[in-house]
Amino acid sequence: MKFVNTDPFERKRNAIKDHPEFNGIIMLFDYYINFIDRITDLIDNTIVMFLLKEKSYLYQHDHLYSAMYTLKSIKECVSIGNFSDANILIRKLNDDLFFYLFVLELDNNHQILFSNQVDKVENELFMKNINYFIKWDNDNLNDFYISRNALSYIKNNNTVSDLIIKYNLEEDWKKINKKLNNFVHNNGKNYCGQNFKILCSNELDHVFIELRNKVSFIFNIVIVLLVLIKPHYIMSIDHIMFLDSNITPPEDSQYWVASFVQEFFDEHLTQYNPELKIFLKENTYMEIL
Description:
This protein has 289 residues and is mostly helical. It has 13 helices and two strands; from the N terminus they run ααββααααααααααα. The longest helix is centred in the last third of the chain and has 29 residues, at 201-229.
């Protein structure tokens, strides 16, 4: 007598892998994972260090590395149909990446502490926010909110603020975060059930579209903001290679964009919103094509 495997985990996994959109979304996650990995290679020699009261705080791009591994976890959750968990991790991905932008903007403003002409308001704002970083560095950050603190701080960067206002990005971001919060807090039967139910093909269609839209929005917006905050982070390694080889680099090669980043602008950002690429070209010194 032949016994049929009725293990619900296995049946759920098979139903997901047989769905026509499954391979596409897994490839998308792999693309994002690889993209962050290559960005970490570009910024490997960059230093983010804060000096306060004769004490130094070295930041080693921790949140970017964390985001890369969170993406791997999201991919695994999707592979086994733990869609509620995947959404919770997408919320963590969002928070990691926006905290990363927050730290980079702090780094941009670090010179305030060494200026001879200190603006009192700017100094107080910087000190208030650098203290959040210090708390994080000491493992006791418990009064920090991405929307209220991180996003509001990076919006003090005028170019970032112009982008967010012009394209209504904050409202879109809040809508996505509201959806993600429903999973974080299990705010309904549907959110809870997405972890254990075997979904029909039409339900999986909707789930995959939602997952793709959330991750793509976060990733596209974060990369655009990253370029506005730290344009040189996308610099091609060609310039450094010339210097390392004791060869005079071609003129303006420090403004060349890494090829994989240019491909992202052409194939992903343009598909999401071509105007964002135009905005970057007009508002950074990098030679975005």
